[in-house]
Each structure stands twice: as structure tokens, then as C-alpha cells.
Amino acid sequence: MIEAGSAIPTTAIPTTLWGTFRRHLPAFLIGSSMLLLFQIALNRIDRCSIWAIDAIFQGRADEAWKPGLAMLLLALFAFGVRVASRWFMFNAGRDVEYELRVVLLERLHRLGTAFYRRMSSGDIMSRSTSDLQQVRLLFGFGVLNIVNVVFAFGSAMQIMVSVSVKLTLVSLANMPLLVLFTRTLAKGLYTRTRDNQETLGKLSETVQGNLAGIRVVRSFALEAFERERFAKVNADYLRASLAIARLRGSLGPMVGAVSASGVLLFFWYGATLLLRGPNRDGISHGQFFAFWQASMRMAWPMLAFGFSISMIQRGRAGFIRLKEIFDAEPEIVDGPSAPPAHFSGAISVKNLNFAYGKRTVLNDVTFELKAGESVAIVGKTGSGKSTLAMLLARLLPTPTGTVFLDGLDVCTLPVKSVRQVIGYAQQDAFLFSNSVARNIAFALDNPDAAEATPLIERAAREAQVYDDVQRLPEQFDTVVGERGVQVSGGQKQRIALARALLLQPKALILDDPLSAVDAKTEASILQAIEAHAKGRTVILVTHRIAAAARCDRVVVLDEGAIVETGTHEALLRARGLYATFAEQQRRETALDALAHQEHP
């Protein structure tokens, strides 16, 4: 059994049905052994019942206590091994669920943007909860019942055949019909379960989207429209759920009806043999009771077999849906080379081209940054600035031979080592539904340690968010809510900036960290960035000329290509695109100041 919290290398966890079963084969074998002992004990109880009942009917009641005592001891033993069988097999199913959940998260961390464009978060949540639960039931309850059916059939058949071969054949005359029936229903259960899980994924996606965008829905007064859209998806899920419920609901009664026909045949022919008696090619009272008990002992596993077929098909459907995530190829993979012991943070880009499908985003981009140098990437919206920033940090599939860190192609290095050296603060700041302190200290090994507190507070001051945090209800312990809904856009952006500043990487990429702050806060943040930039490489993606002016050099992008590069002063003198941006922003600033004077 897996210990709670134990770390498992995901490479050691198979992601096939047979491989998963084989990994936990010892637990299944021990559980199966317990089931075998359980059925052997029941077999012996049936045999003892023949001796006890025949002794009573033959006038030897004083001898009945011996088989009676044996039946009691066997019943206690059967109880123990039955509990043990469930302990091993159900725990094996739980362990399978635990391991596959570990693999699932590891795969989701590795997969890139192309996968998440193809599969929605709601669908992923459906697979990681409902489908994973079906897989657990498959490997726990499903395997246990299948094994138990086999052993129960053999144990009961031994008693039944020993009593009367003819009576056994008559009682099992309905068996071919039962097998044909379960096979037919199994196919329908598989397809309907798959459809049901797919509609559940769409339902989860709709609910999650409404929760994440609840402010947008309210601001546009679209509650009625969203309720109508949800009602359609909910109706589809209801239809799919009812379809599988009808099939599953008919499974038990129909299997029970077929099994009941065997009971009727037993009473008809068994009563005939009982009236004949053992001396006239019939059976005794004890044999009649033992046969009946054995046939009933086989009846419940046969009924459970129908449910097990349903569970197996649902588990198979769930596993196949999980396999779509397990087998998805990550766009970004580790390189073959080991990272050097030390990085200086020098970055160079050579002939970088990148496209989303057929749309070219970057075209022959080339520039170089020495260790400790700062550069501003400036351009209009859609010029490729953010894409360039993500390619440098290997958050997108960087083309081989285009981006180099200390002269080493980043594609030849482990992804983790590149991202530890190149810190990245994204434009659309994301906060977890946790406290401010934990969001800032997200990358620390122990964010709750006492020594983490001064680091968190220092990073908050550098990002100019410390005073804002002090005004929150619980200060650094304030929970910011899902995606940071409890704080303003500017506060969210500065908390994310503090998170990037905390680790002090050798190279720091800041993707427009000033888009949601006022001019006074912008100046303070730029001062903090300048102080933080000493001794490390800084790439500042921005549309603000005031921010770009503080960097050593400026690179101007237009439609994915570099059109200008140089210092702030040199580009102003060149009177190109950068100078045009500067003049536009100077006029906007002057107009804002004039408007403020007229309407203080």
C-alpha cells in the first residue's frame, strides 16, 4: 500500500490498463488468495451442512453438533479472509487512483498551449475527477467481483456436481442466455458511458467559465443568456445520464430474471429427486439443502457479475479518456545536455522565426544581451513582444538554434534549469486562491518558514505593493480569491511582480508590468526594477517610453520584425517608429495634465 504523501517517479508508473494492473499484481494476488480461501470455506460449510442435516433426518441428531461446530469455525474464518480480500483489493484500487493522479498532474505541467487550446479546463477537470473515479472502481470493486465470480462458480459447481450432475445441468440451462445478454449490454454501456463523460466535461467547462467570468457576465447583464446556455448543456448531460441509467437499471432486473429461471428449474427437478430419495437415484435432504445453498451462493456473484461488467466498461471508457492526456506529446521537452554549474545570464537571439499555425508572429529576430545588461522590447499591440518573451523563457516551443543562454542553445538544456535562470513575470498576472504571502512566496520551498517573511515583505516593497497589502483586512494573510478577484488589477499585477522579484534569477523578463498602475506607482516600480537589475540581465517588455528610457538599449518590433535598435537617445534622434511612439505619449501626457488642471 502506498504511504500518504510519498513521492513516486512518474516514469515508474505505467499508463496502460494491463501495465497498471501488473504494477499492483502482488496486492491483487493476495486479495485473490483471500477470496479463494473464502470460497473454499463456504464449500466446506456446504459439505458440513449435508452431514448435519442427513444426521438429523436419519435419527442421529446427537452427531450433528460436530459438523455444526465445524460450520461455525469455518464461518468465522470466512469472515476474516473476506474482510482481508477487500482490504487488499480496494486499497489497490485507491493506489491506482493515487498514482494516476500523480501522472496526470505531471503531464498537465508538461503540456503546452496547443494542448490547452484543444482541450478545455472543464473537460480536463471532468477527466481528473469523474473518469479517474471510474478507473478506481474498475481496479477495486470490478476486479474483486470478477475474481469472486470465478472462484464462487468453481466452489459452488464442485458441490452441485457432487450432489447431482443432472440437477446441475438443469439448473444451469439458462447460463448461455445470461452470457449472451451481458455481452450485448457491455457494448452499450461502454459507448453510453463515454458519451456521458464527454457531456459532463462540457457541463464542467460551462460552469467553470461562468464562475471565472462572473463579473463580466454581470457587467453585460447576460445572466439570462448564460442560464439558457447552461440549460442546453445541462439537458444534454441529463439525456446522456438517463440513457446510461436506463441501461444500467435494466441490467440488474434482467440478470436477476434470467437467474430466477434457473431457481425455478432447480425447484422443479430438485424436488423430484428429493422425493425419490438417495436409494432410488435421488438426493437426500442434506444434499438438497447444500445444492440450494451452493446455487444461491453462485447466484449473487452472477448478479454482481452484471454490475461488474458495467463497472469495467465505465472504467475502460474513463481510462481511454485519461489516456488522451497521458499520451499527448508535450511541445517543450528537456534537452540532452546537463546544465553548467553557473550561469551568468547572457542571452542572445539569432534569426528567430515563429508562427501560430500559418500566421507569422516573429520574423528573423536577432539581438544580444550581455550579462547584467537591460533591454526594452517596444512595439505596437500585436507586434510579437509577448511571444518573444515567452520564447526566451521556453514557455512556448522555442525553435532549435535560435535562443542561447551563456552561449548554450536553450533547447539542449533541461527546461527546469532554463526557467530557474530566466525568471518571467507575465502580462496577465495570475494569482492563486490563497493568501497574499503565499502568492508572493509561491516558488519558495517552505513559504511558511519564519525566514521567508522578510523576503516576502522586501519583494512587496520593491514591487510597490506593501502599503496596499497593509490596508487589506488581514494584510499578508488576506486570501485574494479565485484568480485574485479580491484585489484590484494594479494590485494583482504588483503582487505577481513581487513573486518574480523574490527569487532573484540571473535573467528577468518582465512582460508589461506597468500596464495597470498610475504614473507615480510606475516611477517607484521602475526604481525598484533598476535596483533589482544590478548584476542581472533584464528584458522589459513595455509600451511606455518612460520605462524603456531607463534600459541600456531599446529593441523596437513592428509586425514581428526588428525595425530599430539602440539607446533611448539615439532612437529619438533617428526620428523613426520609436520617436513617433515617444511623441504620441508626450502629447497624451500633456493632454491628461491639461484635463486635470481644468477638472481638478
Short description:
By secondary structure, this protein is of the alpha/beta class. It is built from 20 helices and 10 strands. It folds into 2 domains: 314 residues, ABC transporter transmembrane region fold; 177 residues, Rossmann fold (3-Layer(aba) Sandwich).
Radius of gyration: 35 Å
Number of domains: 2
| DSSP, total strands | 10
Helical coverage, percent range: 55-70%
> What's the number of helices?
20
- Taken in chain order, the helices and strands follow as HHHHHHHHHHEEEHEEHEHHHHEHEHEEHH
End-to-end separation in angstroms reads: 70 Å
Any guess at the CATH architecture of the largest domain?
A: Up-down Bundle
Q: What is the CATH class of the largest domain?
A: Mainly Alpha
Q: Reading side by side through the largest sheet, how are the strands ordered?
A: 6-7-8-3-9-10
Per the CATH scheme, the topology name of the largest domain is: ABC transporter transmembrane region fold
Give the overall pLDDT as a whole number: 80
Percentage of residues in DSSP E strands: 5-15%
Structural class label: alpha/beta
Question: How many strands, what sense, and barrel or not for the largest sheet?
Answer: 6 strands, mixed
Overall geometric form: elongated
Low-confidence stretches: none
Full CATH superfamily name of the largest domain: ABC transporter type 1, transmembrane domain
